[in-house]
Write a structure and sequence with these properties.
Elements (H helix, E strand, L loop, with lengths): L3 E7 L2 E7 L8 E5 L11 E6 L1 H5 L4 E3 L8 E4 L3 E2 L6 E17 L10 E6 L7 E4 L9 E14 L1 E9 L8 E3 L5 E7 L3 E7 L5 E8 L9 E14 L5 E8 L5 E4 L5 E3 L4 E7 L1 H9 L2 E8 L7 E3 L4 E13 L3
Parallel strand pairs: 1-24
Antiparallel strand pairs: 1-2, 3-24, 4-14, 5-13, 6-12, 7-12, 8-11, 8-14, 8-15, 9-10, 9-12, 15-23, 16-22, 17-21, 17-24, 18-19, 18-20, 18-22
Length: about 325
């Protein structure tokens, strides 16, 4: 609990006593969940097999159309995270939904194979075979389930053994005679995230803050800010805490140049001076920011990776009595 020493000025008498009113709350107690920062929970993409891919330059109405295929389509690469800091993720309880919509004037035949393969891998991360025909103007959704696996940040979806059924009826081929496919991961269990060695990764969190030390109600503020940090990760970090204004602009920083926080290290720092006091009075938000430089031997975060932080105001001031 935070104990603050208040000096009340009232009736020309000064009374010292310990008090913790709700209006003054320079105690912040939280955690920076490093593992949850990269966006690996919402993995999705959309793909299109164009009319040219299937029918070439043929357009217009034809009296009949022979079967087409088999054709193989390696589609555009998909990324788990666009920031390119992630090398791979370990996943479990994987469930992938694939919705195929047939806008062609002919039936898409069963037997097509959809594979997801990590960049550079020789075996598929996941694979399914479409077991039914998809008629013109209809959609079908298929599900791939997998207990666990490793997926690189960049992976490729392929649609192989693609075929159409022959028709003896007239059909019209246009530029919109396409097949679309939507891929969507249900939020998987992420067991670990491995980052790219040599590429700096940044994690941060921001939250609203009001120390209750506005100049209309308090004066002669002095004391220290006590910062209590616990790095519960087997990785070294450079950590900083920034005081922000209401729009997110930086007013000041607790550790100029950052604090080097070693793996699994606990640190308590007491910071005094008028600059810290001014920042506590003016800040409307606080940012906790951690940066690490992955190496080949030290670049993996597991699901319990976090940094705990406490900001404690050990302050003395006068409350203005009106």
């Amino acid at each position: 609990m935070l104990g603050l020493l208040f000096v009340l000025a009232s009736c020309n008498n000064e009374v010292d006593f310990d008090w913790q009113p709700k209006v003054v709350s320079p105690l912040v107690n939280g955690e920076l969940g490093l593992f949850q920062q990269p966006d690996v929970k919402n993995i999705s993409d959309d793909f299109l097999i164009t009319a040219t891919n299937v029918f070439g330059n043929q357009r217009g109405t034809v009296n009949s159309l022979p079967a087409i295929g088999p054709l193989n389509f390696p589609l555009e690469p998909t990324k788990i995270s666009d920031n390119d800091e992630i090398d791979e993720v370990g996943l479990s309880n994987v469930k992938i939904s694939l919705t195929i919509t047939n806008r062609m004037p002919v039936t898409m035949a069963s037997g097509a194979v959809i594979t997801l393969t990590s960049a550079g891998a020789s075996t598929a991360f996941a694979e399914t075979t479409i077991g039914q025909d998809i008629a013109p103007g209809t959609s079908q959704t298929f599900t791939i389930s997998q207990s666990s696996g490793v997926l690189k940040n960049t992976f490729v979806v392929s649609l192989n053994n693609f075929k159409t059924l022959a028709t003896n009826d007239p059909v019209t081929i246009t530029d919109n005679s396409q097949v679309s496919m939507k891929l969507q991961f249900d939020p998987p269990t992420v067991d670990y995230i491995q980052f790219i060695a040599g590429k700096s990764s940044t994690f941060d969190t921001q939250f609203d803050f009001d120390a209750g030390l506005d100049q209309q109600n308090t004066e002669d503020v002095s004391g220290d800010l006590v910062v209590d940090l616990k790095n519960q990760v087997a990785i070294d970090f450079n950590l900083n805490i920034n005081f922000l204004d209401a729009s997110g602009g930086i007013l000041g920083t607790v550790f100029p140049g950052g604090l080097e926080l070693s793996a699994n290290q606990s640190v308590v720092r007491r910071i005094g001076g008028q600059t810290i006091i001014n920042n506590l009075q003016a800040a409307k938000k606080i940012q906790v920011k951690a940066v690490f430089n992955p190496t080949i031997a030290n670049r993996k975060l597991t699901s319990d990776a976090k940094i705990l932080y406490k900001l404690i105001g050990d302050l003395q001031f006068k409350v203005k009595v009106k």
